[in-house]
Amino acid sequence: MSDFPLFPEQASTVAWQVDLIYFTLVALSIFFSVAVAAAIVFFALRYRQGADVDRSHPLIEHTKLELTWSIIPFIMAMGVFGWAAMVFVDIKTPPADATEIYIIGKQWMWQAQHPSGKREINQLHIPINTPVKLIMTSQDVIHDFYIPVFRVKQDVVPGRYTTLWFQATKTGEFHLFCAEYCGTEHSAMVGTVVVMEQSEFKNWLGGGSSDEPLAVAGERLFTENGCITCHSGEPGAIGPPISNVSIFGTEVEFADGSTGTVDEAYLRESILDPQAKVVAGYAPVMPSYDGQLSEQSLLQLIEFLKTK
Ligand code: CUA
After folding, report:
1. If DSSP codes are grouped into helix, strand and coil, which group holds residue 92?
2. H helices then E strands: how many in the chain?
3. Confidence category of residue 2, pLDDT binned at 50, 70, 90
């Protein structure tokens, strides 16, 4: 990790695919650049002024030739497009059973928190050969979470959740960068990804400081902030039932007749901007908690609602 090789090693399941696309594009570019340059040089020399060559029948049109040099590159370009699109979809679609870790970006550090409560700054410990999904947000400006050896990168945006997933294939310590200019200390917003054997990771997760699990902290916030008063689920309650049922992943109908799935983004929006999507059958009376809950608290509440 101390040296600076031309290319980072490949340490995730998608890394070789991303590289193969890149090298294919480079190879195609070199091939066509050389072919065009060679043709230019050849014709420039052969038909230079004063050269003794036949110029009596200049070729004005050659449909077959033109079709050939249009159709073949078209097929090649569409082939690369289709191939890259498949890899892109793969990179953007986390498996359902992925291990989830929450990431908060802030000027100028990365904070990671595992659902067990374990927290780390500018470090991310993950198990090898396991799909890992990051649910990320920013506390201030746009950052960008970038792990070169995994060939993955995703903007981290204030006010919303973005996700990133990967599956590490090598143990070791790797660079983690912020790849979006975010202020004075942007270049110092770096960290280390530590890929561990699965058993080692379990030990690491269980050892050390006894941070409270996210869901437990979330449950406490749920009570402290009075959520439970309106969302008790008892008859006549002001808000839709939450404390006595599992709502995450369910479909809900809104007052305007539209429907939606209860996911991280929806829960976040409903806490910060409750009037945005009011559940059908309820009055729009919930106060906004915007500015009253930190990103950390929001994640704890969401994890509580997700796991109950
Ligand atoms: Cu955060 Cu650049």
Report:
1. helix
2. 7, 12
3. low
Q: Which two tokens stand for residue 66?
A: 């033109």
- Cβ–ligand 1 distance for 178 under 6 Å, the answer yes
- Least confident window among 28-32, 143-147, 244-248, 255-259: 244-248
How do the domains of the chain map onto residue ranges?
Answer: 1-49+94-211, 214-306
Q: What is the pLDDT of residue 223?
A: 82
pLDDT at 166: 95
Which residues, at least 6 apart from 112, have a Cβ–Cβ distance to it below 8 Å? 101, 102, 103, 119, 120, 121, 123, 124
The fold of the 1-49+94-211 domain, in CATH, is: Immunoglobulin-like (2.60.40)
Minimum-distance ligand 1 atom for the alpha carbon of 186: 2
Distance of CA 54 to the CA centre of its chain: 61
Q: pLDDT digit string (tens) for 249-265?
A: 888 888 888 988 888 88
Sign of dihedral through CA atoms 50, 53, 57, 63? negative
Neighbours of 32 (CB within 10 A): 12
**Class of CATH domain 214-306:** mainly alpha
Q: Mind listing the pLDDT tens digit for each residue in 119-146?
A: 888 999 999 999 999 999 999 999 999 9
Other CB atoms closer than 10 Å to residue 111's CB: what's the count?
18
Ligand 1 neighbourhood includes 295 CB (under 6 angstroms): no
Indicate if ligand 1 lies below 6 Å from the C-beta of 305: no
